[in-house]
Specification:
two-stranded antiparallel sheet; 13 helices; 5 strands; 3 domains; Arc Repressor Mutant, subunit A; globular
């Protein structure tokens, strides 16, 4: 007998501040297991079961490698830049929360900054994804969008905003995902991965502009357009970028 296909997981309470603090705290520990024990006891919730559930979510979102040497921890260790850390963590969260990522890429980013994100749009999306209205899920979705920086509340309205250009995060992730060691990478391959949208870039031209700036600043070896093929040749390994704290 065929197994019934399960639907998407319900959106959970977003733990942005707790996640940021967890990444910073992780640098103090020698093992991932020791850090996990700390996380479960340091969260402020009174209920042990809630702390355990929240700790699981923080780890799933921001420590997907299940290591204290993961991407977010490395970014904080080398750069000590909270703005960059948030950009990296925004990418990590949306990479493992496809429902939130879909709403942002299909409804938020195509809209012009300053547009009001109307409540019925959230209702309709939740109904579409889960087959029924759910006030709590709708509220969690809206709160998550706000905390990630894609929107802000103004006199009861949720207004879509433009995130600052996350050029250094784009630079880091381009190397991590496509060229951890120096390599030739096509722009087509980069643009087909939605990671740049998770960083807040609205259009592919913004990605092109940032990578052209990287070439102009000698952070990548080449940006070439030839025979309708766009490609970059990277110059540094991902580890070298971290070690030298290179910014774009």
């Amino acid at each position: 007998m065929a197994t019934k296909k399960s639907g998407p997981l319900y959106i959970q309470d977003f733990l942005w501040d707790e996640g940021i603090q967890a990444v910073k705290d992780s640098l103090r520990f020698r093992s991932f297991e020791e850090f996990c024990r700390h996380l479960e006891t340091s969260l402020p919730q009174n209920s042990e079961s809630t702390r355990h559930r929240y700790a699981r979510n923080v780890i799933r979102w921001f420590f997907p490698e299940r290591s204290i040497d993961g991407l977010a921890a490395q970014a904080w260790c080398y750069y000590q830049d909270e703005g960059l850390l948030k950009e990296i963590m925004r990418y990590q969260f949306l990479s493992v929360e496809p429902v939130v990522a879909q709403f942002i890429t299909e409804y938020v980013l195509p809209a012009e900054p300053g547009t009001t994100l109307r409540s019925p749009i959230l209702d309709e999306f939740v109904q579409y994804k889960y087959g029924a209205s759910n006030k709590k899920v709708k509220q969690r979705l809206g709160n998550t969008i706000d905390q990630l920086g894609f929107a802000q509340r103004n006199k009861g309205n949720r207004i879509i905003v433009q995130l600052p250009a996350a050029r250094t995060a784009l630079f880091l992730l381009t190397h991590l995902l496509f060229a951890p060691t120096p390599a030739l990478v096509s722009l087509k391959e980069i643009l087909e991965n939605p990671f740049w949208k998770y960083l807040g870039f609205r259009h592919a031209d913004g990605v092109r502009k940032a990578l052209k700036e990287a070439a102009a600043n000698d952070l990548v070896a080449k940006y070439v357009i030839a025979d309708e093929l766009e490609q970059i040749t990277t110059k540094y390994s991902f580890k070298e970028i971290l070690g030298q704290r290179l910014y774009l």
